[in-house]
Structures are given as structure tokens and as C-alpha cells.
Amino acid sequence: MTNLTDPRGIHYRGGTLRRSGVATGAAIRCAAVVALTVLAVGATLSIQMGSASAAPVRPASAAPVSPPFTECPPVGGDTGCGILIILTNSGEQILQDPSQPAYDINIGMEDTLVGVLNESTVPVSKIQLSSGDQPIFGFDSDGICTFTAGGTNQFEPGGFPAGTYCTADQKAGNDPSTSGDPLGSDYQGPNNTFSNISADQMSGSVDFNSALAPGTGTSYFSLEEPLGSCNFASACGYWEAASDGGIFAYGSTFQGSMGGRPLNQPIVAIASDQVTGGYWEVAADGGLFAFNAPFFGSMGGQPLNQPIVGMVATPDGGGYWEVAADGGLFAFGDAHFFGSMGGQPLNAAVVGIAATASGKGYWEVASDGGLFSFGDATFHGSMGGQPLNSDVVGMTADPATGGYWEVASDGGLFAFNAPFFGSMGGSPLNMPITGMASTPDGKGYWEVATDGGIFNFGDATFHGSAGNIPLNSPIVGIAASL
Fold first, then answer.
1. N or C: which end of the chain has fewer CB within 10 A?
2. Mind listing the domains of the chain with CATH numbers?
3. What angle do CA 235, 236, 237 make, to 5 degrees?
4. Is the pLDDT of residue 421 over 60?
């Protein structure tokens, strides 16, 4: 079997890949909730979050970063960073560990432990943060230093054993109006200070006392509010994929598509790569197309008993699974095979798949709502055997609870060990729902219709949709930019 590689980063195993046609869809610029500017020593490294002009690409040699994020030491209720900012030469990546709550678990749960990793090739002396809606520098005297021995919150579970650098003022969380202690010094890490804090406390700078070394330099600090990765980037947008391979990017970066190119079979699903910021499209014949994402193989050109209907990536971006309508499961890269419904009796065809947060299991969902769990995926219930107004068309996992949601073509949504934030069930739709995706923190989700209409719930933000533009082919799926 031939493995063809297009120089533009498109990979397809089996069949023919022609290099004609143009990509469908365009990058949509969207202002970020929090902007980030990086200042380098001896070089220019400027990153403005919210711009879709360049993808946040990590060096090919860099190993994938996944939770737990040990760039931060244990503090209070956290065993590592809740948020990790990765700096590279061409952009930034914001990762979130949903298992880490706000570290002040007993006194409000409203502060976040933030780590920084410099994977760029220049030293970094400062990052500037600004928020459109959160007072992230609105410090209120419960920073990480107050959790260390002798601090005002020293009796909180976990404490802050690494806080030996903290001064008496930092441990006390003193207000600058009553002491010479700088604003928010109790939130600072051992190698940083805060400056240039705006009057509305929504912007400021994090200055590193010693510049972060190229490639490996790290630091940590804390900020106000229980922040998620969506608060730090023009990530938490999404891509819509059409059956002709066209990709439409909203609040995310357009990396290319199969739109306008010959396909042996139509595209049926899309999955995002949370490591590279890219995505994969998969066709009904198992052919897979990678855009700023690695290619690990596919079922393209291989015999299939039933067509492929969905795919999902492993959390570290090192592999993915394809699933067929008969429940057959095909694993590539570091995705392991834990079993499948292939060859087993089914009351209805499988229509989708979701992976667990560990990458050591997955669920398959059928059009009648039946759900099948494999590996460490826990069965929390399903709509199988329950009355449905319309067929189930997809599912997604809740990274925070380990549960999942099923979505039906009429927009009805069914939550199992996952919060319900609303749905389009019972509401008029111009076209049926075809898929859904969740936000990285599990506190919201989007439903997408075949005409490209987007419906957002919880903390999922509406960045735009293809619902008001002519489409050459129907939308078949949605993926969140993480």
C-alpha cells in the first residue's frame, strides 16, 4: 500500500491524491478573550493572541505536552498547573488540565495556577496579558504565597511546600495601601513579578526576573478567577467540515482542506489535534487527510465491511481511531485497540465515537442512542431502548466529569454524568443537526446543523457559522480548537 505525502501537509493512504483545486473555507479573525504578547531578550518574538494569521505550531522535535503539567508545584487543591502557556517561535499554545480545580478550594474556588514553558529559540523576559471580561489581575489576598507555612491560608489542604521564597508580606497577602508590598505579590512565583496593571485590573505584565531560557525555561504564578483555556486564546473556536472536504474556521485557524479536490468518498467527520492546533478529515472509505497534524495511517484503500462514520484523536495528538457503521474500530499511532462492536449484533448503526480523557478507552454510539464502552470508558447510561423523536447523530465526551453527551438530529441533547446546558430540542431548525463538540473545560458545547448553523450552550462562544452562506455540500461535523 502506497503512502502518499503532499508537500502541503496532506496525507492519504490508498487511492489517489491529486494536487489540483483550491481549499474551501477561510480563516476568520476573532478577538481573543485574553491577549498575550511575549517580549524576548536579544530577539523579536511577538505573539498577539486572537490573530488567525499564523498557526501556533510547536517544533516538530518537541515531545507532546499533556497533563499533569509539572511546571507548577502543588498548591492547595492543585497538584500541578491548571493552565499551561507554551511559547514557540510561531505562536502560543494554551493547554488546560480539567482535573485541576481552582487551587483555593475552600475559600472561594476563584484563583488559577498558571505555568509557562518557553519552547522558543530565544529567551523570554515578559508576557503581557489582557482580558476582555475578566479581572485577572484583581488580586484579593489569597495568592499562592498565603498557602505556605506561616501564610494566612497555611491550613488549607495541600498548602504550598514550594513557597520558601515567599516574604512575610507575601505570606500575609498584604494590601499595598497598608504596606510597601506590591499589588498581588502573594500571587507571584519565585521568578516573576507583576507590573503595568490597568485600572480595571483586566490587563498587566508578568515580568521574569531571569529570562526564561530557550527551549526549556519555565515559570509559574497565579491569577484571579477560575480560568480555562478558553479565557486565554482565540482557541475555543471551532471548525465545520463539509462532505466535499471544505473546512470553515470560526475563532480558529484555517489550516487547509480537501474542498475543491477530488475525493473517492465523501468526508464524514473531523477531529482536532490539541497539540498542533491542526485537524484531520476522514472519508467514508477510511481515507484520512491531515492539516497541520501528523498522519499515522488510515483505512483508505483497505477493505471495509461498512463505511467509516467517525473519528476521534488521542488526547496527546499521537494517534486516532476511525469507527465504521458496523462498530468496527481501527486504531493508528498511539491509539490502542480496546475492543469494538465490529461483528456484534447491533439494533442500529454506529454513528460516532468519543475518547476518554486518558486516551485509554472510548465509546461508540448508535443511531438509536445505544452506547458501547471499551477500555477505561465508563458506561453512565444511554438513550438505547428509550423513545427518541429523532435519531442520535453523534456524541462527545465531557473532559471534566468523564461523562458524555449524545445529540439527536432534532437538536435534542442527552447528558450522562455530564451537565446539561440546553439544546435545540423542541426548537425550530432550518436543517437537521449533524454533530456536536464540547469546550475544553467541559462547561459548554456546540451543536452544528447540515446547513452550517451553529448553536452554542454553556461557556461555548459563538464565533460565527456557515449557516448564512451558500454551501457546495452539507456540513457533516464540527471540531473544537483546543
1. N
2. 3-26+235-480 (2.130.10.10), 34-231 (no CATH)
3. 85
4. yes
